[in-house]
Amino acid sequence: xxxxxxxxxxxxPMDNIFIPQLLKMPERTYExxxxxxxxxxxxxxxxxxxxxxxxxxxxxxxxxxxxTILTLTCDRCLQTFNYRLTVDTTEIILLQxxxxxxxxxxxxxxxxxxxxxxxxxxxxxxxxxxxxEQLSLAMPxxxxxxxxxxxxxxxxxNNDEITKDDRWSALASLKSIMxx
Length: 180
What we know:
- This protein has 4 helices and 7 strands; from the N terminus they run βαββββββααα.
- The protein is elongated and about 80 Å long.
- It has a 5-stranded mixed beta sheet with strand order 2-3-4-5-6.
- α3 packs across α4.
- The chain is α+β, with helices and mostly antiparallel strands.
- Helix content is 19%, strand content 30%.
């Protein structure tokens, strides 16, 4: 008699995680595989990877390893190209009750070490929003297609561009009256 095992991959929705619920989970950890689209992010492929959150009494440790493919527009030549966006990050979020706004002074000095992400210990972690933020932070600041591209010049499309856009015709008339 042989024993046959079957692996079942469950599609876990990216619902909010109620933080006190993490204390009841094995090793106070919730982990699942990602294979879904993020509603606020336009991607060609679903976001694939793994998400893990561990409750460590006074903080959450969140780990994300994911990738997807985006279509970007080159800042230099204005052509579209596909870009693989990869994220491998860990973040610590402190669990503390928010301060009572009435007890805070109107003006106070804030030390940069005090700036950190916090959630209330009895609150929720909004998983899809957190993943969206991490993917957004990983996006390139300059979109360059990687080809030896050049910006489009008005001389390449002399007749078409100049007749479509009055600014080019104004520039052309200035060039004609300016001595070289």
